[in-house]
Amino acid sequence: MPIADIPVFVFVVVVIVVSLLSNVVVLICFLYNQEIRKQVPGLFILNLTFCNLFLTVSTMPLTLVGLINKGNPGSSGFCQTVGFLDTFLTTNSMLSMGALSIDRWVAVVFPLSYHSRIRHRDAVIALAYTWIHSLSFATVATCLSWVGYHHLYASCTLCNARASDTQTQFIIYTVVLHSLTFLLTLIVLCVTYLKVLKVARFHCKRIDVITMQTLLLLVDIHPSVRQRCLDEQRQRRQRATKKISTFIGTFVVCFSPYVITRIVEILTPGHISPHWGVLSKCLAYSKAACDPFVYSLLRNQYRKTCSDLANKILKRRSFNSSVRRVENGRTNDTNNTKPIVKGLAIA
Questions:
Q1: Gap between the Cα atoms of 306 and 50, Å rounded
Q2: pTM to 2 decimals?
């Protein structure tokens, strides 16, 4: 493996480890906490978690093999299967993010009618659409032999081996695929989260007005208390902006380089560096490691669940260790009394 590929190799290994551990933790929290299972967003997060896990164990390791061997990591049929999974799982995860953003928009903009607008049945219908959408594109690519090992990305993914015969059809397919997955999801994310931010800022302004009126009435209030209230106002506004920026920013940073590289590649083939191609693919992989923190583990409900699980495990370990100490103490006492009993018997 060339020296230039070593940083990318290490980056993929880190992404695999972080993605595997974090998504497993999210899955454990979902199974452990009944309240998370009852919530509608939990279904979207569960679907996103499964997509990330399967993507981590199926396609990412083969990219490592492709970087080492500089070639197809397996047979043609095996690589086509992995390419099918790569297209299906990536598309499914993007659409799941769009469904999550719509759910958050309804929850913030229509809080009183949220439970009547978004029910488990509606979530199942939305997930069914994401699966049908993803399976359709992945199946079409597989049936037309448009999946295989791509040297530019060192992975089993979309690849037109019969470039001279079906180049035009492959270009149309690629443009439509990314338009109805990446572009569609990006538009949904921007529209919904910006509306959420608008509502959040409106509520923050109302709270700020009430706070300022209260501060004006309290003439004898200490300056430090007044300053603390003003700081809390500023932090409240910044917190909402940071969350929305994180949702949209991680999606753009992770997926846009790969999608743009794909479009440029089919329009002007041979003008892209292989190092950039692999790096753009690895950035797309990194979204699987970011999603658990962006959508789950940094939320109070998941953090509390993780804390409860950790405390439960630690208490069980301390209880088992105390039981062992008691049993060892009893064994030692029994061994110490045996010589005394024998001596008394002899006497």
A1: 19
A2: 0.82
